[in-house]
Amino acid sequence: MASTQGAHNILVASNRGPVTYEVQEDGSLRARRGGGGLVSGLSAIGPDAGALWVCSALGDGDREAVRRGIAEDGVRMLDIDADVHADAYNGIANSVLWFVHHMLYQTPLEPVFDAEFRRQWASYEAYNRAFAEALAAEAARGAVVIVQDYHLTLVPGMLRERRPDLRIGHFSHTPWAPVDYFRMLPDDIAEQVLRGMLGADRLGFLTQRWADAFTACCDALVGGLGDTRIGVHGLGADADFLRRRSHEADVADRMAALREQIGEGRRTIVRVDRTELSKNIVRGLLAYRQLLEDHPEWRERVVHVAFAYPSRQDLAVYRDYTAEVQRVATEINSQYGTPGWTPVVLHVKDDFARSLAAYRLADVALVNPIRDGMNLVAKEVPVVSDEGCVLVLSREAGAYEELGEDAVVVNPYDVVGTARALDAALTMPVGERAERTKRLAAAGTALPPAQWFLEQLRELEG
Ligand code: G6P
């Protein structure tokens, strides 16, 4: 298929871009820049590299920006029809593919792949096609394109058809489902996802476990990987950025406020997550309650600081889960709280400075997802921690592969086991805790975002 060529040599594509716009009261648009691995990765290659980030317009502000022709340098937002986007993002990406890879279905009732699912799937195809067309139009001859995540699994194949000259990569930030779970998807859809991904020259995963699961799916369902190469790039935390940012004045202010809420001389168990089903926040609260039940000596002497920031609130299951987190936290506070002690301090308003403040104060960090591609909180806390912090880590988090040896490891479904792990973490001798924190910080920052990105780029260029 012939197509005109663009001018960009390096392109990335993702659903969520590096910037979003908000419509102000006076009708003007305000840009808000996000962080994350890709932002740092791209800044590592510099503004002269001719890179372009293709992403979706995600709300009214973004759509308005596209209409007014407002754009950041190096960013192209696609104004995909809002209904098509909602079907693709909420319907397929977040309610089906995310659920499959995180194994979140309550299988006696879900999933049901009915006519409505097929209708949404057509939107997912259209949404992927819009990305493939934009990338095909913007890429220079022989350019490198790295497509991100489960929202865009069909793009590599669609782009390969349009532009066989390109070097195409895809990176998965999620786990990959085991084959018996993955093939719950209708056969033709499962095949389409795998073949779409295999349109890439190279596929990247966060851990060997997820890479192996993908390979197993290809072996079972489409006769293997063909010519596509697989690589593992365990995205790490950005030590320089975190150390600098966590010592700014706003973080110190948040620390003072948190200390006030925690109270004098108490231990702190911290968790920071999006309010995401896979993060297992409710079982974390239940484990904390079990700790207070089994170890009365901790009552009044420990506080669970839980930050659960709103996520994907268009989906009813996420809204229900958010309510459940709040309900259980309130229940624990009314069951055990005393006039001078609030056992659970729950915050739901996203505040990065306050997250860093909690990292610095934490005696224990609880990272207990039922399944997680990596989990960067597990890697960030040890870098920032002031006095050493014990990491209680789920064996189902990707980070377990790199951090498992120096963490207190839990089965995320085992509430009693997690309560025991919390007690072990709280009673760990300070010397051991400091040593482990040092090793965790080193392991968790071994592949900072800039290198993570450059590694993939080199592999594709080579
Ligand atoms: C995960 C996904 C990302 C996604 C992020 C936030 O980390 O791998 O692709 O951007 O969650 O979710 P959201 O739906 O808000 O973009």
Automatic annotation (TrEMBL):
Gene3D superfamilies, A to Z: Glycogen Phosphorylase B
Signal peptide: none
InterPro entries: Glyco_trans_20
Domain of life from the UniProt record: Bacteria
Family: Belongs to the glycosyltransferase 20 family.
UniProt name for this protein: Trehalose-6-phosphate synthase
Organism: Streptomyces mirabilis
